[in-house]
Amino acid sequence: MDNKVAVYRKEHFNAAHRLTNPLWDDEKNNAVFGKCNNPNYHGHNYELIVKLSGVPDPQTGFVIDLKLLSDLIQYNVVDKFDHKNLNEDCAEFRNLNPTAENIAIVIYNILREKISSALSLQVRLYETERNFVEYPAN
Amino acid sequence: MDNKVAVYRKEHFNAAHRLTNPLWDDEKNNAVFGKCNNPNYHGHNYELIVKLSGVPDPQTGFVIDLKLLSDLIQYNVVDKFDHKNLNEDCAEFRNLNPTAENIAIVIYNILREKISSALSLQVRLYETERNFVEYPAN
Amino acid sequence: MDNKVAVYRKEHFNAAHRLTNPLWDDEKNNAVFGKCNNPNYHGHNYELIVKLSGVPDPQTGFVIDLKLLSDLIQYNVVDKFDHKNLNEDCAEFRNLNPTAENIAIVIYNILREKISSALSLQVRLYETERNFVEYPAN
Amino acid sequence: MDNKVAVYRKEHFNAAHRLTNPLWDDEKNNAVFGKCNNPNYHGHNYELIVKLSGVPDPQTGFVIDLKLLSDLIQYNVVDKFDHKNLNEDCAEFRNLNPTAENIAIVIYNILREKISSALSLQVRLYETERNFVEYPAN
Amino acid sequence: MDNKVAVYRKEHFNAAHRLTNPLWDDEKNNAVFGKCNNPNYHGHNYELIVKLSGVPDPQTGFVIDLKLLSDLIQYNVVDKFDHKNLNEDCAEFRNLNPTAENIAIVIYNILREKISSALSLQVRLYETERNFVEYPAN
Amino acid sequence: MDNKVAVYRKEHFNAAHRLTNPLWDDEKNNAVFGKCNNPNYHGHNYELIVKLSGVPDPQTGFVIDLKLLSDLIQYNVVDKFDHKNLNEDCAEFRNLNPTAENIAIVIYNILREKISSALSLQVRLYETERNFVEYPAN
Question: E with A: 3 or more CB pairs under 8 Å?
Fold first, then answer.
């Protein structure tokens, strides 16, 4: 065992989306995505938990200052997706179905570029209290 | 003090909405409703708590069978609003701004007609964990 | 407006119960109580919130010392019902159907005798996160 | 029944405090306040829920813009108490024991001056998940 | 790192149980299991979280449709254990002590047969908010 | 896959602390730790989750009796830190900055000595609902 500690920061955003595959006709989209395929959209309060693992800095006792991590998530993720229509307003989902799985991968990729490679990264995204995802899987 | 007991049932639905006043221009709507005015909508996981107060039936010990209350909310409220765009898909909000306050009043009026007048009714609606409303106010 | 403050203390207990009316036959009990009528019992984690309202003591700033209230609930309610079968082990429910409504009334009556009449009392009981009751109703 | 709706906004702050009555000696303070009397302080994550009741504005559908209410609580309450020692850093508790009851009354009085008298006000303060208070009591 | 995403679905059931080892006498059972050994049973609201990890289908963006996973848990686990006495009503615990650990293993084994071996499986079971288990351990 | 099950027990304590590096001057401490550097302290409700993984005992079905684990955490951790000033009252933090990371490592080291080496150990510590840490990291 090394001395790595994981730190977690929870943020949230509210967004509209619909699930659809543009290569399929309406009948198939309805069969697969059901009411999530509503062409007028529905929405969620997304809860996002970002996990970083690393060795604490001996001078501060911090893996990372969680205020800085919060600001970084706010600026790069929340400002991009909060109170938006993921399908219509967000370039990331122009050609990608905004399932919870895909939203988590997109957020991971955004944050991975902004965070030191000395820290490992994982994101958990709650679409509802009962449905949530994590990327990458342990 | 009489013998009234209050019973509560919690349900939820996910919906898209936008806040807007059609009598105002875009500038005023943006000034008042900010990012909630996004013309492409955003969305929420709405948590709904329905409260009924009355004297328990001496034969059952129930104010109301909560399974029946759950079914009644499901049929009359959740099926109507879940995975919908409140502004576009729901006649109740064709001419009514879907603020949490107005959604709560609409739900109260729907349920009030379906529930015995011997029971008093109150609805609480969570738009997010930090923003919620109650109608009628105590 | 007077200067009354309400204070709340949350406790919990785990118990088995079944819902049944001994004056009815099995068919009627099943029709009314459904799977809650299982003769072998089922169970719950009950969450109990006790509310007392009164004027804070100017010397302590307390309506009541919540540690004392916690001990009082523990001794008079939790020790009586925790890890018990309400129907079989508890005299209070020998002739009373242990619905959430009736359990709340029983707990109110137990506590009412132990707490100064200068303080008003209300109990809220969660049978599940989605089903809960309050006595007396506001 | 009038048309009043209650709206709620939840905020939080983290603070240190100790409970003590300067007119009492150490023995009495220890007997009454126990480990809450630690002269080196302890602390809490306080969760604050502010409730306002009024008639929604027909043009906005809002009792009050919850973003404005959030800013008002932030500026007048959270900035004052967050990451502070209530006894040492806050004039409000120089001569007032910072029990949950008294903190709630102080917050009520601060907010009451800032909010239109057309709206009724109530504050709920969680000291822990299991201990909380409300002022004024219903 | 591969492209695996973990998806989670939360369900619940309410059940009665007692902890006991039929090879031991009452004295030993009481010494080891304490009030959990009550011969008349007690009960819990069990919260179950099922985790599946796999690569999302590029056509749907789903690891698995969570509605299908929910139905599968409902049919194979919840319908079997909800509102039951685990010791008396459930063949799985005829010869197996229904500790949280053993219930989690039983649920894992039930679900493992029903879910594609391309997906890895883990179950978490909350007996109370403060006591919970996970199988298999990471 | 072996037969290991993870069991979790949640406890809590309330404490005051400040973040500071005694080798730095006030200006640097303020720049790095911000309002967490308040010399009069602030405080938190710490939620602690202890995870142990091992093979259940075939006679009990327990990895460990969670009542025993709860008592062990209470005696060795909660009694030491609850209602304390971590910087002033606790020898563990005389020369160690009480960040969440360091508190988690200290608690891990305390518990590791008290728990059989056949069981693997991990601790999670919530400083607030939105900021938490885990040691060792997975």
Answer: yes
